[in-house]
Every structure is written in structure tokens, then in C-alpha cells.
Amino acid sequence: MRAKPVAVEDQHRLIMECRSSGLTDYQWCIEHDIKPGTFYNWVKRLRQKGMGLPANGVDRKPARQEVVRLDIPKPQLPASVVQPAVLPPSENYPNEASTGFPTVDLSLAGAILRIPQQTDPAFLEQLIRILRNELC
To answer: For residues 32 and 26, what is the distance between their CA atoms, to the nearest angstrom?
Structure first.
């Protein structure tokens, strides 16, 4: 069944009301029981007749935004990651005495990383990012 025709003056008034509402055209049409396709046909026909219409507001922010609350649980790290590592004494591990540089020891998921102080910071950043993605 076809909808009743809407007079050109009413079409213009409705378009102006929509464009000044702060809503997107689609949101406004849904709230006012107007099919978006019908609305855009009105806009097209009125523009063809040379009637001035404001832009559709693609660049403007919607007046209302839906907000959805997300509860994201904080990941729990394994105890082996949180607790400091106790290294067994060994001559096989490079340390300050053998390298001449201070080292940083990291214990992650049962693995021990001994990182010399002169290690490239960009490499460390990349390593930590990779490990974070693997552990979390």
C-alpha cells in the first residue's frame, strides 16, 4: 500500500526540521516514521526544483550516541610472571662481571631473560610488545 502523498511545502519543512535536529537523516527518519528512501527522494526532487537545502550533516556529530557499558576483566598474570626470579648461581649466565655491563633480569612465564644495559631500546620495546601479546 502506498503512503499518502506529502505536499512539496511539507516535504521542505520536514527536510529543514531534520537537518536542524542534530540527528543523522537516517535517525531522524526512523524517529518520525518516514522511510529514508522516501526522504532522500524528496531531497532529490526539491534540489532539482532549485530549492535551497542544507547539507545532510555527514560531517556533524550526532546529537545522541548510544553508549554501551563493557565490563572487561583485568587479566591475571601467572605467579611466575609477577614474582621475581631467583637465578641459580652459574657461570653460564652472562652478567655484569662477564660482560662489563649491568644487566636486567626478567622472569616471564618460567623463562628468564637477562638483558644487557646496552640493548637497543627499540628492540626492547618490540620484545615487550610481543611478550605482552603472548602472555595476555
So the answer is: 10
pTM, rounded to two decimals: 0.42
Q: What angle do CA 119, 111, 109 make, to 5 degrees?
A: 115
Using one digit for the tens of pLDDT, what is the confidence trace for 69-127?
777 777 665 555 555 555 555 555 555 556 566 777 777 767 777 777 777 888 888 88
CB atoms within 10 A of CB 65: 6
Give domain status of residue 117, yes or no: yes
Residue 16 lies in a domain: yes
Residue carrying the nine cell digits 521542505: 12
Domain, as residue range, for 104: 79-135
Using CA atoms, how far residue 122 sits from 38, 114, 131, in Å, is 57, 17, 14
Last residue of a domain, one of 68, 94, 127: 68
Q: Are residues 127 and 100 in the same domain?
A: yes
Q: Are residues 61 and 93 in the same domain?
A: no
C-alpha cell at 94: 652472562
